[in-house]
């Protein structure tokens, strides 16, 4: 089951919307994989999610990875995101 790893204070945006960014992770075969999700702040859009962004040895390492992400990385990840569900 996916676990919330971090909610970022920074938002990222496109011409049409600003997005709240969250990092999620899940354990697979003793290692943790992480990805990012983007929820539109203005509503009306679907949420976006990146594919697998990282694999870490444990949850603590995944949390450290998320803590080190810079705004420029988050902006690039938004461009890699794919729609996966309605905004809530």
Give a short synopsis of this structure.
The chain is 22% helix and 50% strand. By secondary structure, the protein is of the alpha+beta class.
What features would you describe in this structure?
- The chain has one domain.
- Helix content is 22%, strand content 50%.
- The protein contains two helices and six strands.
- Strands 1, 2, 3, 4, 5 and 6 form a six-stranded antiparallel beta sheet that branches.
- The two termini are 19 Å apart.
The Rg value, from CA coordinates, equals 13 Å
- Domains, number: 1
List the secondary-structure elements in sequence, H or E.
EEEEEHHE
Helix fraction bin: 10-25%
Helical segment count: 2
| Low-confidence residue ranges | none
How would you state the average pLDDT, rounded?
Answer: 92
Name the shape in a single word.
globular
Total number of β-strand segments?
Answer: 6
Sheet with the most strands, sense and barrel status? 6 strands, antiparallel
The end-to-end span amounts to: 19 Å
Would you tell me the structural class of the helices and strands? alpha+beta
Share of residues in strands:
over 45%
């Amino acid at each position: 089951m996916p676990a919330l790893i971090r909610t970022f204070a920074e938002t990222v945006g496109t011409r049409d919307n600003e997005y709240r960014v969250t990092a999620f992770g899940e354990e697979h075969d003793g290692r943790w994989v992480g990805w990012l999700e983007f929820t539109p702040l203005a509503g009306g859009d679907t949420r976006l999610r990146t594919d697998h962004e990282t694999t870490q040895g444990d949850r603590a390492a995944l949390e450290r990875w998320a803590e080190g992400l810079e705004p420029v990385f988050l902006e690039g990840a938004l461009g890699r995101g794919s729609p996966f569900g309605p905004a809530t």
